[in-house]
Every structure is written in structure tokens, then in C-alpha cells.
Amino acid sequence: MNAQFKKGVLDLIALHVISEGPMTTYDVLVKLRDALDVNENTIYPLLRRLEQDTLISHQKHQGDMGAPRKVFLLTDAGKTHLATLKKDWFEFSSVVHTILGGKNNV
């Protein structure tokens, strides 16, 4: 997949994945890695930036073994931003699809 395409939608996809329920960094990594072929070098900075932008927050959860794990949750600002990104994405992708000739040119 084109790297520029991925870069443009990573925030949207990461926020959507986290909106499905509390996610560890590893959970987010697995979902995005499998779908978009991204790695830790993309995911860790992305999660840090989303947290700095107050779109996600984290809580520490103690598991059965080992150190506590960060679990990410969407903030209210993150929910609002995700809704805006989804609206923008569907409008944008619809226009691109129309320009490219619809399903006849896929």
C-alpha cells in the first residue's frame, strides 16, 4: 500500500481502533500492523502524539504477571475529533471515487 495513503489515515484508523474499547499499545500495533503493514516505529510515536494532543489518555493496569500495562482510551476530545475525521474521510473518499469513475474503474 502506498505510504502516503497510510500516513494520511493513520490518525483516523488508530482513533477508531481505540474507540472500540481499551487497547494496549500491543493491541493497537497488531490491528494496524495486520491491516496496514506498519510497525512499532510508526505506532509508538503516533500514540504519543495522540496523547499529547489529548485525543487519547492512558491508564495503567496491573496484569497477572510483569509490569503494569498502559491501556489507551479515547477522550471526549478524541471522540469529537474521530467523528470529524470520519465525516471528512467519507466525503473525501466519495469525491475521489467519483472522479476515478466509480466502481467501473476499480
Written overview of the protein:
It is elongated and about 55 Å long. The chain has 4 helices and 3 strands. The model has no long low-confidence stretch (mean pLDDT 88). A 3-stranded antiparallel beta sheet has the order 1-3-2. It is 62% helix and 13% strand. With 106 residues, the chain is of the alpha+beta class. The chain has a single domain, classed as Arc Repressor Mutant, subunit A, CATH 1.10.10.10.
Primary descriptors:
106 residues, single chain, three-stranded antiparallel β-sheet, Arc Repressor Mutant, subunit A, elongated, alpha+beta
Which CATH-level-2 architecture?
Orthogonal Bundle
By secondary-structure content and strand pairing, the structural class works out as: alpha+beta
- How many structural domains are formed by the residues? 1
SSE arrangement, N to C: HEHHEEH
- The mean pLDDT is 88
Contiguous low-pLDDT stretches (5 residues minimum) are: none
- Global Rg: 16 Å
User: What summary fits the major beta sheet?
Assistant: 3 strands, antiparallel
Residues in helix, %: 55-70%
Query: Which sequence of strands runs across the widest sheet?
Result: 1-3-2
Summed up, the helix count is 4
End-to-end separation: 15 Å
Q: What is the 3D shape?
A: elongated
Classified in CATH, the superfamily is Winged helix-like DNA-binding domain superfamily/Winged helix DNA-binding domain
Q: Approximately what portion of the residues adopt beta-strand conformation?
A: 5-15%
CATH class: Mainly Alpha
- What CATH calls the topology is Arc Repressor Mutant, subunit A
Per DSSP E runs of 2 or more residues, the count of β-strands stands at 3
